[in-house]
């Protein structure tokens, strides 16, 4: 009985440590609006290929630890938006109405999901990564200070 309770306690403690480490890594990169990728310990802009394979982008897993993960992109370009099985360029004025109405524009979140919003930050050469800087997830950022225990 004691051995079973000890095992349960150790499992809970391990989970708490993993969650704290994940939060620490998230905080390390979020001040620059980037995602920490555990594969190489680097910080990357969301919605970019980063350390991922061709045809993938780095995003934050919804409900996860806040770290970057590689997922297959819905379309070939990060300025395309998948709707009804069709990839539509968000900058194509002739087709933008298929995505959003009126003054609304497609907007990707750090999770790789898009919705129509009124704000739109356009950067040169098709770069959309700056759109994610206004994502609410960054409100969880704190000033990152790494503590080292001696």
Low-confidence stretches: 9-22, 124-130, 143-150
User: How much helical structure, as a percent, in the residues?
Assistant: 10-25%
Strand count, sense and barrel status of the largest sheet are: 2 strands, antiparallel
Strand order of the largest sheet: 1-2
- Mean pLDDT over the full residue set: 75
Percent strand:
15-25%
Radius of gyration: 19 Å
Distance, first to last CA:
36 Å
Name the overall outline: globular
How many distinct helices?
1
Report the strand count.
8
Structural class call reads alpha+beta
Give me the strand/helix succession. HEEEEEEEE
Q: What does this entry show, briefly?
A:
The chain is an alpha+beta fold. Helices cover 19% and strands 21% of the residues.
Task: Describe the fold and architecture.
With about 150 residues, the chain is of the alpha+beta class. About 20% of the residues lie in helices and about 20% in strands. It contains 1 helix and 8 strands. A two-stranded antiparallel ribbon has the order 1-2. The longest helix has 29 residues, at about 1-30. The two termini are about 35 Å apart. About 25% of the residues are buried.
């Amino acid at each position: 009985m004691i051995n079973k309770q000890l095992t349960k306690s150790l499992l809970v403690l391990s989970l708490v440590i993993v969650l704290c480490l994940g939060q620490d890594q998230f905080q390390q990169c979020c001040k620059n609006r980037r995602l920490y990728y555990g594969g190489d310990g680097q910080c990357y802009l969301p919605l970019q290929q980063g350390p991922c394979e061709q045809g993938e982008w780095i995003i934050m897993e919804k409900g996860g630890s806040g770290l970057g993960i590689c997922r297959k992109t819905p379309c070939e370009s990060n300025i395309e938006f998948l709707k009804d099985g069709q990839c539509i360029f968000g900058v194509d004025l002739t087709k933008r109405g298929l995505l959003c109405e009126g003054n609304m524009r497609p907007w990707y979140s750090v999770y790789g999901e898009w919705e129509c919003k009124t704000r739109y930050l356009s950067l040169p050469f098709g770069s959309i990564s700056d759109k994610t800087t206004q994502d609410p997830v960054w409100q969880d950022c704190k000033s990152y200070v790494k503590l080292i225990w001696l």
